[in-house]
Amino acid sequence: MPSTTGAPSIADAAEIPTSLAANAVALPVDPAPAHRSSSTLGTLSPVSFVVNAADTQTPADSTDPDIAALDKGGKLADQLAALHAQAAQEAAENARIDQIVAQGGLDGWIAEALRIMDMPQSYAPGIKKIIMAESGGNPRAINNWDANAARGTPSQGLMQTIPSTFRKFVAPSLANRPITDPVANITAGVRYMIATYGVDTLVSGGRSNHLGQYIGY
To answer: Where is the Transglycosylase SLT domain (predicted)?
Structure first.
């Protein structure tokens, strides 16, 4: 029968293996376990885990989301700045063309015609060279002596187009204007030159012979 002290009796102790008995320690007995107050109970401490610092390091090939966001924001800002710069440049070019058109005359007509055709203003010098060779810059010039005139279809206007060529090549938005209208005549002559001889011939100022002399259409 077990002892009331909580330690095993002599008879029971004899049955415990020697290796275990040598290490046995008598435990104190709580005299009144059933009446223990909750205030005497111990508290549980939260368990903390130690994380290996090496495991918390960011892999070398990973990207910090904050850095990535800053990089993306920087690129968007650069793109926005580029768009603003482009818009400012286009506005300045349009203002320049407006001024040329407002001044009128041959340069103004050429500038307006190129704008209507949505072509570079850099073509203006070549077009002006052709006009000066064809009509001397006179929008009402009429050729009454060449083969076209002999056929009853004289060349007319700044770029000396015949009526059928004018009707075929004039910019659609200007189709209701007469052949002698300076801007309409330029659009017809330019579109004809590009279609027939290519833009390089237009830019160079028209066709030339082996001596570099202008030979017309």
So the answer is: 119-197
Averaged pLDDT for residues 14-39:
50
Dist CA 10 CA 204 (whole Å): 126
Q: Which of 217, 186, 178 is nearest to 117 (CA)?
A: 186
Nearest C-alpha neighbor of 135 from the set 126, 143, 123:
143
How many Å apart are CA 3 and CA 10, to the nearest integer?
9
Residue with tokens 């885990």: 49
Written as six digits, the tokens of 186 are 């330029």
CA distance 133 to 128: 9
Q: What is the pLDDT of residues 48-100, one digit of tens each?
A: 555 555 555 545 455 566 677 777 777 888 888 889 988 988 888 788 788 88
Read off the DSSP letter of residue 211.
T
Neighbours of 184 (CB within 10 A): 26
* pLDDT score at 20: 46
8 burial level (CB within 10 Å; 0-12, 13-18, 19+)? middle
pLDDT of residue 176: 96
Contacts with 13 (C-beta within 8 Å, 6 or more apart), sequence order: 21, 24
Q: How far is CA 84 from CA 41, 80, 96, 121, 160, in A?
A: 74, 6, 18, 22, 42
| Sequence-separated (6 or more) residues with CB below 8 Å from residue 153 | 162, 163, 164
